[in-house]
Write a structure and sequence with these properties.
heterodimer, A: 112 residues, mainly beta, four-stranded antiparallel sheet, globular, B: 111 residues, six-stranded mixed sheet
Chain lengths: 112, 111
């Protein structure tokens, strides 16, 4: 069966510091991968998605970037965090020709 | 008008009640419809997945799609306090890789 991992679970970072969040998927190959941000009381905001290694599409111009160095690894990064980057970050995957997405446990980021 | 509309709630019901959660949408190309359950501080979990119109049942959960009205519903029978969560609807047109999500409805089932 497929499993999706995200780490860390919680992160507190000062403004201006760098960020690296990692997501890995097990049990499938060539998945589509996604990064979402979910702010309190708001819906899911799609940040990036990837249909293959090195292929990244950005939905929202911002302070963040994403990379996919391996088939089942997706990384969300920032060089300098802003207060507005605080939120709940979710990684998801889809594949097998199906439209359904499966989410990881999320990373709660607080920028102070 | 947003593509997918979902009342944020909260919806508060007594244990054992039948719950109806709904979403409306504007894009007639949507063919795939999903419901997710999200507990506080957790990632969304896929509950139901349906294609095109009709009903689908899984235990206490029934998903219903009415494409003519652009309206989807999730019914929960015999609701339990453990059903307390936020329920998100999602839908896609197929081949786009990216579903459109509703904002979610907060459900509270009190004993």
């Amino acid at each position: 069966s497929q499993t999706i991992h995200q780490w860390p679970a919680t992160l507190v970072q000062p403004v201006g510091s760098p960020l690296s969040l990692e997501c890995t998927v097990e049990g499938t190959s060539n998945p589509n991968l996604y990064w979402y941000r979910q702010a309190a009381g708001r819906g899911l905001q799609l940040l990036f998605y990837s249909v293959g290694i090195g292929q990244i599409s950005s939905e929202v111009p911002q302070n963040l970037s994403a990379s996919r160095p391996q088939d089942r690894q997706f990384i969300l990064s920032s060089k300098k965090l802003l207060l507005s980057d605080s939120g709940f970050y979710l990684c998801a995957w889809s594949g097998g020709g199906r439209e359904t997405q499966y989410f990881g446990p999320g990373t709660r980021l607080l920028v102070l | 008008q947003k593509e997918v509309e979902q009342d944020p709630g909260p919806l508060s019901v007594p244990e054992g009640a039948i719950v109806s959660l709904n979403c409306t949408y504007s894009n007639s190309a949507f063919q795939y419809f999903m419901w997710y359950r999200q507990y506080s501080r957790k990632g969304p979990e896929l509950l139901m997945y349906t294609y095109s119109s009709g009903n689908k049942e899984d235990g206490r959960f029934t998903a219903q799609v009415d494409k003519s009205s652009k309206y989807i519903s999730l019914f929960i029978r015999d609701s339990q306090p453990s059903d307390s969560a936020t329920y998100l609807c999602a839908m896609s047109s197929g081949g786009s890789y990216i579903p459109t999500f509703g904002r979610g409805t907060s459900l509270i089932v009190h004993p």
